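Course assignment 3, question 2. Fill in each field.
Student: A.L.
Task: Predict the tertiary structure for the chain below.
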Amino acid sequence: MELFAQTVVNGLLIGGVYVAIAVGFSLAFGVLHIIDFAVGEWVILGALVGWTLTEWLAVEPLFLLPLVAVGFSLLGWIIQPLIRRVVTGDRPLPVLMGLVFTFGLGILAQAVAFLVWGINRRSIASGLGGQAFELHVAGISLTIPVLRLVMFVFGMAVVAAVSTILRRTRYGAAVRAAAQNPVMAGLLGVNVDRIGRIVYAAYAAITGAAGMFIGMLFAISPEVGLQYTTFAFFTVVLAGMGYVPGVPVAGLALGLLQSLVATSRLGPRYVYLVVFLVLYLILLVSPRGILRRGWA
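Answer field:
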């Protein structure tokens, strides 16, 4: 029983990692209608930049999160007009065009990462790494890694902040209007282009910061970006494409599923197979995601 409970806790904390990565991805699709297949490379670049800054400045990497977020937001602000140019105009299948463009952007980012940082795996040294505390519930002793708990809180806080902004503020109303009908929103005075740049900048900032957490938790190198792209895509599809409030539910469910499969008789080798199968079955029943609120 104790092993099962620990497996569940580990799965939920791993799910927090997926939530942190996927929330920006879901936001970008919901507002910009872009399936960004470079999300994994944003994560890895965030981790590698965080590692470099930590080595240079010799400070706790958590203190560098705002700096990395600002830097990646500026990068997203610069890149978004290029993506918008690809997915607007008279081009057919704009979503597919955006997917192809970001896939190529991801390959370019990976090549740059190989050129700058090489093939060696790196890990960001944090003072919280290796720290954990014991939690006793109903006679069961659970180990809670502090760093994973911090990332879990980070992911949930980002989802709460994004959802609050979208639902409770005038700017959020403008963002939702631009997502639903950009032409009509523009006629009503909404600066759709500016909103697109701000949203993509926020997405890049969130994903780069999440990458720093990934670098603190796991060894990273340029070639593992596709792994995080895959799990981000799984999480967003399971949540319902473009439905940000569904991301925590989907991310936690995915992390729990991964943890249970990895500790079962099947073993870690079958994690992707089981995840694909579960995702396929859920989408057969509910194409709009697990909460039936996303894009069909």
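Instructor remarks: The chain has one domain: 2-285. The radius of gyration is 19 Å.
Grade: pending
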